[in-house]
Amino acid sequence: MSVSIGIVGLPNVGKSTLFKALTRKQVDIQNYPFCTIDPNVGVVQVPDERLQKLAEFSRSKKIVPAVIEFVDIAGLVKGASEGEGLGNKFLANIREVDVIAEVVRVFKNEKIIHVHSKIDPENDIGIIETELILADLDAVNKRVQKLEKEARALDKEAIKKMEVVKKIKLALEKGEPARELGLSEDELALVKDLHLLTFKPILYVYNVSDIESGQKLPFSIPDIEGKDHVALDIKTEEDLLEISEEEKNELGAQSRIDKLIVEAYKLLNLITFFTTGEDETRAWTIKKDSRAPEAGAAIHTDFKEKFIRADVINWQNLLSAGSYAAAREKGLIRTEGKDYIVKDGDVVEFKI
Q1: pLDDT at res. 348
Q2: Region 311-319: what's the mean pLDDT?
């Protein structure tokens, strides 16, 4: 399945530098707002040591990792929801992604201008959230007007939608993002076509300086324990691109960029299963709790419709057995039916 993550934040917080560090793709990085006007897009491999081990086990000719698409979106400013800066364009770009990775500036550097002339992570987070809420409120108000007309004509579907939309409207007016409403699957389905920004999960990326990059965050944000986050020294991550693995080991320098990718993957509630053989070893991305036919659809839609059964073994058990033949003799390979919930790390062979 295709997964995209939008890198957002105020101007000059390190978004484009992070994008470069993630994708090793050169982008325009300048010390002024709006240097990134059109979103840069890069595809990044999901780090997974299991893939290489399975490929060696099968002597595979080809390795195909799971990937995430990162989109570098230009700086968002106060008033973006009303068209300030390049607001409308930026908000449209955010609407297209699955997850928002919000870069928050914590580092101090007088040579790099902060758009509000002070380092205040809590305020910066508040500005971005407010703009997303205001943009959603505008979309919801427009939808309410349309639904009211349809509801007056006793359209049952419109009446159902109206109840959910008004619930969302009330929350947004209180300054609460739609994701915190805890809507049911049925309610979410009714308003899916609204494509609300505040439904999207957020991963906060705190851009810290080298001396601050320990596990403990060097500042206080209300409810920080409830926020999915990772702290990175983004400039150091960029510098590490220029040196060899041997030099990194000598310096004791270790990149933490993979943590961001893994956390984003988790935030979307995704897992990985594998197929492996002499031709190729491949990682497949699916939603957690997917049944076997749904997992098979990641390979080809026919696998869902024509599913008969699946042979399944945990990747570690397969490697420990030494071969497929040995794994079968030990009874480690299970034959599963349509109701089997595929687990992270399963090696699966589908029968259709």
Answers
A1: 95
A2: 96
Residue 126 carries which DSSP code?
H
Helix locations, 59-207, DSSP H: 87-95, 121-152, 156-173, 185-190
d(CA 43, CA 213): 26
The answer to whether residues 182 and 239 belong to one domain is: yes
Task: Say how many CA atoms lie within 13 Å of 68 toward its Cβ.
Answer: 31
Distance of CA 69 to the CA centre of its chain: 9
Do the domain assignments include residue 323?
Answer: yes
More confident residue, 167 or 107: 167
Q: Torsion angle of alpha carbons 12, 18, 24, 29, nearest 10°?
A: 0
Torsion of CA 78, 84, 86, 92, to 10 degrees: 80
Q: 329-348: per-residue pLDDT in tens?
A: 999 999 999 999 999 999 99
**Contact criterion met (CB below 8 Å) for 73 and 94:** yes
Place of tokens 């910066």: 124
**Angstrom distance (rounded) from CA 40 to CA 235:** 19
In this structure, the answer to whether residues 132 and 185 fall within a common structural domain is: yes
Q: Residue 23 and residue 17: Cα distance in Å, rounded?
A: 10
Cα 178 from Cα 180, distance rounded (Å): 5
Please name the residues in contact with 31: beta carbons below 8 A apart, sequence gap of 6 or more.
12, 111, 112, 113
Confidence at 213, pLDDT banded by 50, 70, 90 = very low
pLDDT tens across 1-17, in order? 778 899 988 888 888 88
Same domain, 295 and 258: no
Report yes or no: 240 and 259 within 8 Å, Cβ to Cβ.
no
Which structural domain range is residue 69 located in? Answer: 4-264
* CATH number for 240: 3.40.50.300
How distant is the alpha carbon of residue 28 from its chain centre? 23
Number of domains in the chain: 2
